[in-house]
Amino acid sequence: MKKMKKNSNGNGRSRTRSIGRRPNHDIIVIGTSAGGVEALIELVGGFPPDLPAAVFVVIHLASFQDSTLPQILSRNGALPAAFAVHGETIRTGRIYLAPPDAHLMLQPDHVRVIRGPKENGHRPAVDPLFRTAARAFESRVVGVILTGALDCGTAGLLSVKARGGLAVVQDPNDAFCADMPRSALRHVKVDYVLPLLKIPSQLARLAREPAIQGKGEKMRRPNEQGESNGTPVADLTCPECSGALKETEVNGLLQFNCHVGHVYSEESMLMEQGEATEAALWGAVRALQESENLARRMATRSDASLSARFYEKAEAAKQHWERIRNILLNGEGEDLVEALKPSPPRKQSKPASRRVMVRK
């Protein structure tokens, strides 16, 4: 076994060591979203200072905001936490956080921090961390899913299990937001389902247990970046880049991926399409408002024979944008069909009568 040198972290609270090739569960990857900050504070507070594992965390962060999460976790736990730096060596006894607007990925001896394509609409996303950890460290990996919305992390946890790693999921009844834990339980053969308070001690035990090589689940792995498996989907395009999509299914988990590398689960695809539809409808409201304004302006600058037509066009545009806006603010999606129906014929207005008189 390769001898590993101990290094002080400078604050006297813990020591870190370079990852060797010992077959223990010494790679812990954690994914969380809504309610994740509070969950992580409680989780790291339960880690022992001599945890013989490296811990990697993805939490969905806004790309435009500075985050003090590393300092918060360092204050509340025995292990030092920091945003991961591209190319740095992996060491035990440390917590590596995915920085805002970048994916955190693992190689056998170092981390990668890259601005790759978004997955499930997020960057950082949970799946790239879990997927690359499983590929680099196989059965040494313990994947942990905590509180969060939708289903980010489920595909990554499937990859961990397919390569022999272990799966730990927070009890949905104990989670602030149960979507991510429930999705993992629905699609993955999970090894441990625990309340948050019991997860740190379980991870500490697993980090000292030998990893059993070659014990992966017998199932097809979810697509990894660069793979082109899947069935082309003719009637769907990528919400991010409008590229063609391919569809894959593993353990009942449906995924869509484009050639650029954007990946969506069924739930995230629905969410992204909903956001794109809303944006398009607000664009329609703006365009119709501009059409109304232009028609009214032209009506005031035209002679009587044309002004009535412009006023009529302005009123029609106003009716359309008001109906669409009301649906966006108050209504349901199915009301759109009714809103976009042509307006019924209207009685001639007074300006129209004036136009007839001119013709005489």
How would you sum up this structure in a few lines?
The chain is 38% helix and 19% strand. It is of the alpha/beta class.
What does the secondary structure layout of this molecule look like, with pairings?
Blueprint lengths: L5 E3 L6 E3 L9 E6 L3 H10 L8 E6 L9 H8 L4 E3 L11 E3 L5 E4 L4 E4 L11 H12 L3 E5 L8 H9 L3 E5 L8 H9 L4 E3 L4 H9 L23 E7 L6 E7 L2 E6 L4 E3 H36 L2 H27 L4 H5 L10 H10 L1
Parallel strand pairs: 3-4, 3-9, 4-6, 5-6, 9-10, 10-11
Antiparallel strand pairs: 1-2, 7-8, 12-13, 13-14, 14-15
Radius of gyration: 28 Å
How many strand elements? 15
Elements, N to C (H/E): EEEHEHEEEEHEHEHEHEEEEHHHH
Summed up, the helix count is 10
Spatial strand sequence of the major β-sheet: 5-6-4-3-9-10-11
Assembly level:
single chain
Estimate the strand proportion: 15-25%
Q: State mean pLDDT (0 to 100 scale).
A: 84
The coarse overall form would be elongated
Q: Portion of residues in helices?
A: 25-40%
| First and last CA, distance | 105 Å
What structural class results from the helix and strand content? alpha/beta
